[in-house]
Amino acid sequence: MSGDQKDLKAQEKAQPVEPARHRREGIGFMGRLRAYFLAGILVTAPIAITAYIAWWFVSLIDGHIRPLIPSAYNPENYLPFSIPGLGLLVVILVVTLIGAFAAGYVGRLVLGVGEGVVGRMPVVRSVYGAVKQIFETVLAKKSNAFREVVIVQYPRTGAWSLGFITGNAHPEVQLKLAGQAEDIVNVFIPCAPPTAGYLAMVPRRDVIVLNMSVEDGLKLVMSGGIVVPPDRRPTLVEPPGDHSPADHSQDQNDDLDQPDRKVLAAASRSKR
Fold first, then answer.
1. Which helix (H) or strand (E) holds 208?
2. Bridge partners of 189?
3. Mean pLDDT of all residues in the chain?
4. Residue pLDDT, tens place only, 103-148
């Protein structure tokens, strides 16, 4: 072995060996386009669906109310274009005028006579009374209906269902179950999607009240559990800890492997 070779080997031993760095490749062009496309759907789909439902509702009301408007009072007969929402505006105006009339003495007298006539009809009086009581409870806020979101064990022990407290149970139910429970509440357990539901009379001690608004509870039920509301409980701030370089590199790898989540989260924040 010559002296030059010995010197070369000595230099190689003297130099520190650098660890091999893992080369991380960024997101590709097609992946970025896919992420932007999903972000666009996340932004435009809720707006488009909401606008479509609103337009469908307005068109439905207009289609039923416009033929009832006299030609002399229909502004579309004097304009070269149609007015969207004219039927809805007429409905709001008529309902407001009826409410103003019913608030007066003559209106209350006419309403009392009409309710007396309806009260003598065998089937109509039951439907009218139930619908009137529901609207009075919801609109006038005479009770705590749909003010608390709870979970109860239904339909069996160990299976939990989401429900809404609609009030206290009937006094007869409270009396019959006096030895079994102190306080019985009515819990409405809707289906998913909420086309119907069940009325369960549950002891208050078996009801767990959630720190969740009624709107979030309805979203959870209507989506079948897909849309999960945010946690409203106070979170504890974790103390800053020491992270090893391996953990840091792993986090960077996770960020590069999940580019779609970052774009979708930014689009969701911009939408809110």
1. strand 208-209
2. 198
3. 77
4. 888 888 988 898 888 888 888 888 888 888 777 766 665 555 677 8
Tell me the C-alpha distance between 64 and 45, whole Å: 29
At 205-258, the pLDDT tens digits run: 889 999 888 888 888 888 888 878 777 766 655 555 555 555 555 555 554 444
For the stretch 126-162, what's the b/e string if a residue is b when 16 or more beta carbons lie within 10 angstroms of its beta carbon? eeeeeeeeeeebeeeeeeebbebbbbbebeeeeeebb
Residues in a beta bridge with 187 = 165, 200
Token pair 């009581």: residue: 133
Please state the length of the chain.
272
Residues whose CB falls within 8 Å of the CB of residue 264, separated by 6 or more in sequence, listed in order: 35, 38, 39, 42
pTM: 0.52
Q: Which among 99, 115, 96, 116 has a CA at the least distance from the CA of 107?
A: 99
CA distance 227 to 231: 12
- Judge residue 259's burial from the number of C-beta atoms within 10 Å of its C-beta, 0-12 exposed, 13-18 middle, 19 or more buried: middle
Q: Are 254 and 248 in contact (CB under 8 A)?
A: no
Q: What residues form DSSP beta bridges with 168? A: 185
Distance between CA 199 and CA 202 in Å, rounded? 9
Say if strands 208-209 and 148-153 run parallel, antiparallel, or are unpaired: antiparallel
Q: What is residue 191's predicted lDDT score, i.e. its pLDDT?
A: 85
50: helix, strand or coil = helix
Helix, strand, coil share of the chain (percent; to 5): 55, 10, 35
